[in-house]
Amino acid sequence: MHSNNPFQRGSSFVSSEFDRRKLLKLGATAAAGAAASGVLAACSSGGGSGSSSGGTATVRIWSWYTEMKDTLPAVIKDFEAKNPNIKIDSRIFGTPDQYLPALTAAVSGGDVPEIFAPHVRAITYGEQGISADLEKELGSSFLQNFFPPTNQEYTKNGKQYAVGWEAQTFGLFYNPDIFKQAGVNGEPETWDDLIQAAAKINAVGKASVSISCNPTTSALDFFLPLITQVADDPTYYLKLDQLQEGYTYTDKLVVQALELNDRIVKAKVFQPGTTGTSGDQAQQLFYTEGAAMFFAGSWTPSGLITNAPAAFVKKYKVMKTPAIKSGARHWTADQAGAGFAVSETSKNKDAALTFLKYLYSDAVYSDLMNKSNSMPSTQSAAEKITNPMLKLMTSWLPDGCPHIPFGAGSSAAGDPLGKIFDQSASPATVAQEMQVAVLNAKG
Amino acid sequence: MSRNSIPAPPWTRVSMRPRGQSVWKLQRSERLAGYGFVLPISVLFAVFVGWPILFAMYLSFTRWSGFGAPNFTGFANYTRMLNDPVAAGAFVNTIVFALVTTIIQTAIPLVIAVLLSAVWAGLGVVIRTILFIPGIVSFVVSGVLWKLIYDPNLGTLNTTLKSLGLGDLAQHWLSNPHLVLPSIIVVSVWAATGMNMLIFFAGIQGVDPTYYEAAEVDGANRWQQFWYVTVPGLRVVTAIVISLNLMNGFKVFDIIYVMTGGGPSHQSEVFGTYLYGLAFGSTSGSIPQLGYGSAFSVVVMLLGGVAVLVQVILSKRANR
Amino acid sequence: MTTTQSTAPFDRASARRRRRRFPVAKSFISVILVAIAALMIFPLVWLVLTSLRPRNTVFGGSFFPTSITFDAYSTAWTSTNFGLHFFNSLWITSATVIGVVVSAALAGYAFAKLRFPFKNVIYVILLVTLMMPSTSLIIPLYLQLKSIGLLNTQAGLVVLYISSSAPFAMFLMRAFFEILPVELIQAARIDGAGEFTIFWRVVLPLARPGIATVIIFQFLGTWNEFIYANTVLQSTDALPLQPVLFGLLGQYQTDWPTLTAGLTMSIVPVVLVYVWMQRQFVAGMTLGAVKN
After folding, report:
1. Superfamily for the A169-335+407-442 domain
2. Does B118 touch chain C (CB under 8 A)?
3. By the 8 A CB rule, do B172 and A276 touch?
4. Total structural domains in chain B?
5. A29, A96, A302 member nearest C94 (Cβ)
6. A404, exposed or middle or buried, with CB in 10 Å at 0-12, 13-18, 19+?
């Protein structure tokens, strides 16, 4: 009935010319880009697969350790000057969520980066022949310098599949001003002390302890030292993590620890909505003085220097996680949250090991750690720490309990634990759910 | 149709061919053209979408973490899905999210587009551009921005409510299981309104004004003109907008992942976020479960395929 | 009913005048729209303001920064090698847009207007992945790229983008082509035109709003894409802009001013494309291309 007669609309011819000119322009850009990127692609695919061209080995180093972003390039340049046959390609992702897809894909494609942050997969990858046995490659004299828990966490059956880069201990950071305001004297030594302090702090309108339970594995960071305290045995969680004979989540020691956790939550020690608070949000609550204390690891001082107002950075302090009763050991959670593994299958494994040894050499390593305000994993570097907060937290390492679950399925215990934090299940139920969840995820 | 107003097409150099002969040639050339035109997209699809889907289907019957050889496990992944409360939750959340966002993201932009066509042209252009800008930033950025806005302690939303004396209304927008999905829906609407509104606006402009004149001559008031002229004229455009929103709602990932990671406790888990965690073993540190993840992808694909089929059938019926 | 009624904008305005709108209603509506616009733009105003703040004053201060500095912009430019990645994004996105427009327009037209056996079967198969989240097929896609040897190349990424985005673009284009009357094409056929000539000369010019829509959507989608680029490209030099900017979003520490400065700068080309396209888009629609 009605036609849109194309030949009637004089303007459309002009526009269609314009259309074509547009397309041509885009085409030209694309063609130019294709030429340029062809060159780039040739370079990148050459370098990316780690192949040596004309005797140069490319070593890729991948991690999400953004603390080193500004300081690592200089170290790399120095190394390349001393080792002209080796080229380092460093890629620092923003967060593990950005990093893990790239790593998973690279592993599934069989092209593992020469040096990579193993996250919690060090042992799994090691047993599959993806990460190299560093006990063999680096030798025990090299590894002796490291704090024992940072070696042990990556070791299974006598083989060590990664080395610790940044060690960590957990502590309770606190704001002395709010303590004064609420009338809290000194540092709470036990959980009961903490509960009493919380009552006073809540009374002046602040949250007592800021904690992140999103993802729920961060909640495990709080819970696992409790188990160690209840059992008074730093190897208890390790055995539970591996689900060794006789160790289950339904054991009465675990239930006791859950009950303690439950009591702490019921006493309104934490801010409301913990299961919806992410790590950076919990930190923000602390440095905007909405909470008196902050339960987190030793990566926090570095973060606070970047994020928090200068005045706050000067005044905050840190104390050990409270103990179960007066005089008992605090059993601070520790280990190395950031490590490096070496690819077993890469052609440039030797070059990678050379670079790794360079990174850990005394002067380089302690300089890197100090500049990025990170906690070193070697004892020699620990003696040279400049940041007082970190120095204090590093001194807790000997009194620490390992807390990172490396066993298959262990991190699935986090979801049921979240129910203690949002008060939607009882400790006994949660214990059973943990056991079921871990067995399911184990497969 | 007034053929006599068409100037001679530039390709007419030969006289018309006898009809009988040209029919067969026309049909054949049409068929060849059909396949030829469809060839580029089909080849790309087959190589880069079709084959990976087949591979994913194969993986769905195995257990694989990305290294070593996949373990054949038969239907184990599918039975696991039936008993998986998180998968069921993701299913419900995705459907709810897709439906609600489609309805809101079709209605509100339509209303705004109608309002826009009623104001001065200059102001209209400015407002159209401003409304479009939220849709320009990626969903990751929108998610990060709104996560800050929704922060229960520092976020602008709660601090504004408190300063207005409405402190009681301040909520834990993203940590309250009942509020988390609605809060995320608000962000989706915020980002999608601009583009949808633009499409509707263009559609409204495209309605022939003679219809309005005719309606006015027949005595219709402005409301009746809107209902009987504008709305029918927007049928095609509305169908496009609905399809677009439904598709994006089903596929949603970035915005939820950045704001809540699927939390708290999987209350905002959707297909996209759950698949991500299964495929890559997310921050919580689990080992990739590519076999189970592939099974889940296959189910999602089948569900999506059904939805697409329904849409296609409905639109064919509508066009008849 | 309609003969040679011109549909130029001038007549539109007079038509509006004929509809006798009262300025009161217009002003009231304008106020509402301005309020809506202000609310909607607010988070992005925050984004730009944050890029002007000194580093440690992002939280806990007032909404409008007390001191302004453009340091973040120069930091963003140098520390992220902004220029290189911007160019990467530009070329990757442009190539993708062209590839998508070409393949989608051809196929969309074929499905809308041409007749050939198994047409519907092919159509539905092509659409089967329309609803799938981007995260569902990353590993199989990655492995496929690897086996073809296109891994870690920008060309491989572009091909991946085109393949996964073309179906939806085709869906859109088909909808636009369906509206066109068959008589047009039949007439051209009788006049002896070849199928491709018909497509190129007769039909395509009419599909401008469709093409403009696809260009805007595709440009936006590809410019902002993150996860595939991040996974498929290994060497940092080849990366487009988004993955590099999001590298500034740390797990526990984020340099907000630099991040927001980078994001502000990255929005500019998209706004330009939008402004350019929307005139085509709206103009095309007003020329009566969309009708029942």
Report:
1. Periplasmic binding protein-like II (3.40.190.10)
2. yes
3. yes
4. 1
5. A29
6. buried
Nearest to C129 among B49, B130, B254 (CB): B49
CB contacts under 8 A, A 190-229 vs C, are: none
The tokens for A120 are: 């919690």
> What CATH number has the domain bearing residue B176?
1.10.3720.10
Cβ separation C110–B37 shorter than 8 A: yes
Percent of chain C, pLDDT > 70? 87
Residue B72 lies in a domain: no
Helix or strand (DSSP H, E) at B130:
helix B121-132
Q: Would you call C287 and A104 a contact, using CB atoms and an 8 Å cutoff? A: no
Per-residue tens of pLDDT for chain A, all 443 residues: 333 333 223 333 333 443 444 444 444 444 444 444 443 443 344 334 444 455 789 999 999 998 888 899 999 999 999 999 999 999 999 888 889 889 999 998 888 999 999 988 888 888 889 999 999 999 999 999 999 888 888 988 889 999 999 999 999 999 999 999 999 999 999 999 999 999 999 999 999 999 999 888 889 999 988 999 999 988 898 888 888 888 999 999 999 999 999 999 999 999 998 988 888 899 999 999 999 999 999 999 998 988 888 899 999 999 999 999 998 989 988 888 899 999 999 999 999 999 999 999 989 999 999 999 999 999 999 999 999 999 999 999 888 888 888 877 788 888 899 999 989 999 999 999 999 888 877 75
Domain at A57-167+336-402: CATH architecture? 3-Layer(aba) Sandwich (3.40)
Most A CBs within 10 A among B207, B265, B268, B292, hence the mutation to make, goes to B265
Residues 6+ apart with CB under 8 A from B134: B142, B190, B191, B193, B194, C40, C41, C43, C44
Handedness of CA A153, A158, A160, A164 (dihedral sign): positive
Q: Is residue B3 part of a domain?
A: no
What chain A residue is nearest to B172 in terms of C-alpha separation?
A: A273
pLDDT in tens, A9-48: 333 333 344 344 444 444 444 444 444 444 344 334 433 4
Cβ–Cβ of C132/B301 closer than 8 Å? yes
Instruction: Dump strand ranges (E) for A113-192.
Output: 115-116, 155-156, 159-160, 163-174
User: Could you give the CA distance from residue B272 to residue B277 in angstroms, rounded to a whole number?
Assistant: 9
Residue-range domain boundaries for chain A: 57-167+336-402, 169-335+407-442
**Chain C: residue whose CA lies nearest to B45:** C163
Q: Tokens at residue C202, please?
A: 């007769």
Which of helix, strand or coil describes residue C77?
A: helix
Is C6 inside any structural domain?
A: no
Q: Which of residues 133-192 of C touch A (CB under 8 A)?
A: 138-139, 142-143, 146, 151-155, 180-181, 183-184
Q: B207 lies in which domain range?
A: 85-319
Mutate one of C79, C90, C213, C235 to test the A interface: name it (highest A CB count within 10 A): C235
Task: Determine the residue type at B248.
Answer: N
Give dist(CA B32, CA B158) in Å, integer.
63
| Residue B129 covered by a domain | yes
Tell whether B280 is within 8 A of chain A (Cβ): yes
A61 in Cβ contact with C255 (< 8 Å) = no
Confidence grade of residue C283 (pLDDT, cut at 50, 70, 90): low
- Write out chain C residues lying below 8 Å of B252, CB-based: 133
C-beta pairs of B150-159 under 8 Å, 24+ apart in sequence: B150/B174, B150/B183, B150/B259, B151/A281, B151/A284, B152/A272, B152/A273, B153/A271, B153/A284, B153/A285, B153/A288, B153/A290, B154/A284, B154/A285, B154/A288, B154/A290, B154/C59, B154/C60, B156/C46, B156/C63
B176 in contact with chain A, both atoms CB, cutoff 8 A:
yes
Is C3:A8 a contact under the CB 8 Å cutoff? no
